Amino acid sequence: MTSSPPSAVARNRVSLRRPLLALTVGFAAFAMNGASALAYEALLAEPPVAAASSQASRITSPREAFGHEVGADYHLVNYSQWEAYLKTLAGQSDRMKLVEIGKSSEGRTQYIAIVSTPQNLANLDRYQEIARRLAKAEGVSEAEARAMSAEGKAVVWIDGGLHSTETVPPQALIAAVHEWLTAEDPEALRVLNDAIILFAPLNPDGMELVSNWYMRNEDPLKREFASIPVLYQKYVGHDNNRDYYLSAMAETTNVNRQFFREWFPQIIYNHHQTAPAGTVVFMPPFRDPFNYNYDPLVMGTLSEVGAAMHSRLIEEGKPGSTMRSGASYSTWNNGMERSITYFHNAVGLLTEITGHPTPSQISLIPQNQLARNDLPMPVAPQTWHFAQSIEYSQSINRAVLNYASRNKDRLLFNIWRMGQNAIDKGNTDTWRVTPTGIEALQAAAGENVRRVDPALYNSILRDPARRDPRGYVIPADQADLPNAVAFLNSLIKTGVDVDRATQAFTVSGKTYPAGSYVVKTAQAYRPHVLDMFEPQDHPHDLQYPGGPPKLPYDATGYTLALQMGVQFDRVLDGFEAPTERVADVMAPPPGRIEGSGRAGWLIDHAPINGYILSNRLLKAGVPVFWQEGETRAGRATLAPGALWIPASDAARSIVEASVRDLGLNAHAAARVPGGDRIALKPVRVGLVDRYGGSMASGWTRWMLEQFEYPFEVVYPQRLDAGDLAKDFDVLVFASDMIPTDLSAAAQRDQPDPASIPAEYRGWLGNITTEKTVPQIDAFVRAGGSVITIGSAHRLAAAMGAQVEDVLRTDDGKPLASTDFFIPGAILKTEVDNRQPLAFGAPAQMNVFFNRNAGFRHAGEGAPIARYPEQVAVASGWAIGPQKLSGSDAVLDLPHGDGRVIVLGPDVVNRAQARSSVRLLFNALFYGPAVSAEE
Which of 110, 166, 784, 832 reaches 20 to 30 Å from 683, CA-CA? Predict the structure, then answer.
């Protein structure tokens, strides 16, 4: 059926369509606990119209605030207006408390609007404490949990605007806050009494950017935001929804604190768009695969809420909702806002809705006109107005909140139950059943798969060696303790309990020094702990037996401890240690200066914070060198690459501050060390980007800033202009910067320069074979350095480097996915850490591989890292990994008087790959230093 634009977006009544009741009841077996119960409620109670009018009359409406209704075609509200409106509402309504939760990357204030009854708001501290105790579960008996569940209030988080070009969610959030401050219907009053709603604008910077860009044209028909010049989050754009377990961005950290350290909501609803073609909205439940770490009760509850959401739309005659097979969204990866909640025993909801401030079209997709379980009520093709999407969003909010109200006690008790389950599992022997275990079981069963010996269950799936760890110990004496602390800070930001040893202790025959860290699995967030330490064992997920793989929604292997190169020990038996709880994120423990020599300082190359020290020294004009061979430092022998810093007053102050603040250890040497060394020089780095912004370049930019590298962002027009050595020593190309086809004819369309402000016109252009590559080639041949990351290796071939991609057929085509497919996994490499590019790296290093390449090369150039003959997948899913056998992962290729350094894997990977990012950091110094020597 065709839906007409609504005359009013916020409606405090339900449109009950009786012919659909039978379908609704069949769709949601628990109907009287869910959305359909409100129809019965509405028949029994007359809405208090006078009270509603009184309440609404003192609350400023969106039309009064902005001059138009929220959802009016061709209009977007920006964040400055939204912030002012929030403050106005907070001053007018006794149902709302406005709370600052931190600053955005560009310095704007992030808020949550806490909405409930005045009585609930007066007792927020008590309800917040109940939510915390139930979520953490520790020390709470079942009887106490039931009592607190009855006393407490459901906490429901509803947000919008994470992806700012998805304009429905942030605008719908404005309408939602106004609706829940003014609604007086029976359902709303019950919800407000039973629940505390946390409304959260997620991306202030992006909302300001996109709304202003859209509204800059006076002619409504010319309004668009497809041509915005930068990413809608300062650094990472769309990848702000891949940052939730690392928690690198300021906005993510602010939100995670509310989720897992302040408010502990039982339901977290993350509004997104856009819908699959021929539908209006995708909603839960999601397709497989199922992650094997979280509690199954999470998925059971998620299905209940999803059914309530679909039922609500069907009851109100709103067609076009799809689920599961309707889109590719799964529950495997931990990095998204709604998915990290599953690993914290909360229900994470994602909806993807259609809509645009410029009227759009619901397309005609023939198969989506046939009703099925995953699309029960198809929508007709039609012109679609912004307000329709806002109204759908409001209905879905109502479904979620009504479910939370009807099931308040269950939600509160079950988050305790899941937390207690996790604690109990962490205190006993447990086994997760994963695909590898099933494969071992099938192999042991042989051909008789229908009558498998039950004894194999215990001998295979309950093999003592396969037990889940009781905890992890992170030794304080590892080579890079500050890096381990950075990893632990990511855990702490996501609510994980981390303990520090107050004295030395012994576990399983191994003694650990005081200051070592312990992360036990006997805690409520055990699923998240396991997911961050243990390899992801992704199923072999094919479209059909023997067929091509199903594309996963995101990375299949992402174990953060492995990507960051943290040294830790898995402890399979119960253990105790003398520890104290770490209260908050930590600075690295101060290092120390050993020895009393006055010639200078030697510092191991392994700690990643050494790059910060090097940049501070070079900025101050202080000499710093890399020792090419092993170097004695007192009683220790430092591996190749040790930093040598000759003594001076300027050097002393920087070294002492870095030892104190960066956790570095230094040896004060009595004499200048022998052996060859490489003199570092201040480097002029050009980080290549493009109009509209590259996420991979943005992540690289953020990492360069964290480690204090000086750099300039460079656009294709500057590359095309040539004479690059005048401004740069090294150019960096991130993994998504070089397309498969570099010809000018194949490049992406860009806006007409006259249609954008003059300040952005210099950013236009593309990297092309015809104009750009010759200038880059000339730059390198004259002594410059080019660094390519991941798939940007294509540039090396375009420049004529003798590099062969082993994952190509003889005619240059990529291997079929049935032969080779690694869609985001962690692989092991063998590293020659005697080479300057690999100084400080372990001999075996994990790298993130995401549709990248392996190489064979002819001529000069040293292989730095390679895939072993027996390729090993450390975490995730791979088809045909042996195609990489013995191939090079990293190359150092002389090119004229300069160098092309090819970093084959994604050595940055969303700032998670801190183990391999040192290859980039070394390359930034190494190429210019060697060029200067020559």
Answer: 832
What's the confidence (pLDDT) of residue 803?
Answer: 86
The answer to whether 846 and 916 have CB atoms below 8 angstroms apart is yes
Contact between residue 132 and residue 171 where contact means Cβ atoms under 8 Å apart: no
Note the Cα 56 to chain centre separation in Å.
40
- How many Å apart are CA 626 and CA 922, to the nearest integer? 10
Name which of 407, 429, 634 is nearest 521 in CA terms.
Answer: 429
> What's residue 689's pLDDT?
98
Q: How crowded is residue 511: how many other Cβ atoms within 10 Å of its Cβ?
A: 10
Residue bearing tokens 């299949």 = 556
| Residue 630 structure tokens | 């092993």
Gap between the Cα atoms of 926 and 625, Å rounded: 11
Q: How far, in Å, CA of 513 to CA of 505, rounded?
A: 7
**pLDDT single digits (tens) 20-72:** 333 333 333 333 334 344 433 433 343 333 333 345 569 999 999 999 999 99
Q: Is the dihedral of CA 692, 696, 698, 701 positive or negative?
A: negative
Coil, strand, or helix at residue 91?
helix
Residue 479 contacts residue 606 (beta carbons within 8 Å): yes
81 close to 66: Cβ distance less than 8 angstroms? yes
Residue by residue, DSSP assigns 646-687 as E--HHHHHHHHHHHHHH---EEEESS---S-EEE-----EEE
Strand order in 600-603's β-sheet? Answer: 593-594, 666-669, 600-603, 643-646, 625-627, 677-679
What angle, rounded to 10 degrees, do the helices at 168-182 and 386-406 form? Answer: 50
Asked whether the beta carbons of 74 and 220 are under 8 A apart, the reply is yes
Residue 857 pLDDT class (50, 70, 90 cuts): confident
Q: What angle do CA 926, 929, 930 make, to 5 degrees?
A: 85
DSSP secondary structure code for residue 468 in this structure: P
Banded pLDDT at 16 (limits 50, 70, 90): very low
Averaged confidence pLDDT in the chain: 93
- pTM confidence score: 0.93
Type of residue at 249: M
What does the alpha-carbon distance between residue 65 and residue 733 come to, in Å, rounded to a whole number?
46
Give the tokens for residue 563: 């990507």
Cα separation, 622 vs 292, in Å, equals: 52
d(CA 680, CA 615) in angstroms, rounded, equals 10
Kindly tell me the burial class for residue 681, based on how many C-beta atoms sit within 10 Å of its own C-beta (0-12, 13-18, 19 or more): middle
d(CA 6, CA 166): 21
Classify residue 867 as exposed, middle or buried by CB count within 10 Å of its CB (0-12, 13-18, 19+). buried
Q: Where on the phi/psi map is residue 675: left (φ > 0), alpha (ψ -120 to 50), or beta?
A: left
**Interatomic CA distance for residues 569 and 535, integer angstroms:** 14
What are the structure tokens assigned to 673, written together?
A: 């060390």
What Cα–Cα distance (Å) separates residue 847 from each residue in 72, 697, 702, 886?
48, 18, 19, 15
| Residue-level pLDDT at 858 | 67
User: Residue 355: CB partners within 8 Å, gap ≥ 6?
Assistant: 167, 168, 273, 274, 384, 386, 388, 389, 390
Nearest to 462 by CA among 436, 437, 426, 425: 437
Instruction: Identify whether 62 is preceded by a cis peptide bond (ω within 30 of 0).
Output: no
Split at pLDDT 50, 70, 90, the class of 277 is: very high
Are 444 and 460 in contact by the 8 Å Cβ rule? The answer is yes
Which token pair is 464? 């003592």
Distance CA 255, CA 751 (A): 35
Distances (CA, A) of 128 to 34, 57, 96, 177, 196: 25, 31, 15, 21, 10
